[in-house]
Amino acid sequence: MNIIIVGNGKVGYTLAEYLSRQNHDVTIVDKDKNALTRATETLDVLCVRGNGGNVRSLIEAGAEKADVIIAVTANDELNMVCCLAAKQLGTRYSIARIRDPEYTESLTLLQEKLDIDQVINPERAAAQEISRLLRFPFAMNIESFAHGRVEMVEFLVTDQDDITGEPLSRLHARFPHVQFVAVQRHGEAVIPDGSFVIQMGDRLYVSGEHVAVTRFFKRMAKDTQPIRSAMLIGGGHISYYLAKQLVLLGLRIKLVEINREKCRHLSETLEDVIMICGDGTDREVLTDENMEENDALICLTDRDEENIVTGLYGVRMGVRKVVVKVNRLNTPEVLDELGLDNIVSPKISTANAILRSVRALSHSSSSRIQKVYGMLGGKAEAYEFTALAGSGFLNVPLARLKIKKGVLVCVLVRGRRVIIPFGGDHIEAGDTVILAGKAGSIEDLDDAFTGVEEST
């Protein structure tokens, strides 16, 4: 596809790097000469120096024939104008990054009036991700599929868990309402088959309906007691969105912010939140505010180092759930080893969300891709498809389908039913099909199947 990226900051550069690797024709528009020079020297892309809101710059970038424009400058208003102008010129699909909370209430109207196909709000998405993580204090990651009907939860297998030492074929009989999706062991991602045996120390993903997943963890004696209170460090956009969500869920929230003007503004807009004007990285402040008595500590300042150090202090003081925002996420394994296994990175999540959207724009006659979710540091992926009529794999028992090696059919959603499939189950037209596979292994639902075995 022909893709225009306006804004060559961290997100724009990351997008250009990945999309060009996937053989898309990428053009970057930016006013910064140095940023464009770096992109020209390191990436297989075209560069246009100019203002992305200027029609001449967009025409030079090929907006009249482009498939997608992605506007990710630091200015929300410019991103909106870029998308509007490009769509008027003939670009087929537009994606805008819009971050300011003032636009949140009117996003639907803005999208309609400005003809923006998709809005990405990194801070709001990060807040939603953190809110999900607070549901299970032991979970490392939680993602939802099929409009929230299906959940996928990552956790660390410990010596207290009684799922070790048995092949998955036996575990499926014990836990027929959840699916064991993916495992990371010694840094390697594995899509397990029936002979796979879970070991202590594995990072494991399970999926299923919300009630079934909760019941599974209760049987495992995991800590499913809900989080009742949280301390948020830093008063940025993520804290604003998160505090609003958590208050609605009935949590007691303290928010620590060092800037007095920010404190005043937040205290006026977040009436049910206890505002503390102070340095959230100062241990004396944290002690005075009884940090250790909160169920969760969420570090959301603009400095990675401060978030990490404060998060480590929270772990040391025994806070049940510690979540840390990190933008430069080059060595997640190091943070895991330090005890920080709940890391949120808005910039990386934004880039991933846009990349998935670009992939979803390409669909075949057999299926329509709805979602791609990166797991285990991007080494594996979960895919959500809608099966369309006319496909060769429809209405054939899974036991007869030749499923590609390293691919697992995890869950089927048919109407109101959530099905953990066994060999006798089949896919019907209109089903939501959730698969797992190695990263980049699936582009279309057809890719999961190599044929049909003859019936005997």
* DSSP strand content: 25-35%
Largest sheet composition: 6 strands, parallel
Shape: globular
Category from helices, strands and their pairing? alpha/beta
Oligomer: single chain
Mean pLDDT: 90
Give start-end ranges of low-pLDDT stretches.
Answer: none
What is the share of helical residues?
A: 25-40%
**Gap between N and C termini:** 44 Å
- Which strand order does the major sheet show? 3-2-1-4-5-6
Rounded to the nearest angstrom, the radius of gyration is 23 Å
In the CATH classification, which architecture of one domain applies?
3-Layer(aba) Sandwich
By CATH, the topology of one domain is Rossmann fold
Strand runs, count: 24
CATH class of one domain equals: Alpha Beta
The CATH superfamily of one domain is: NAD(P)-binding Rossmann-like Domain
Number of helices: 14
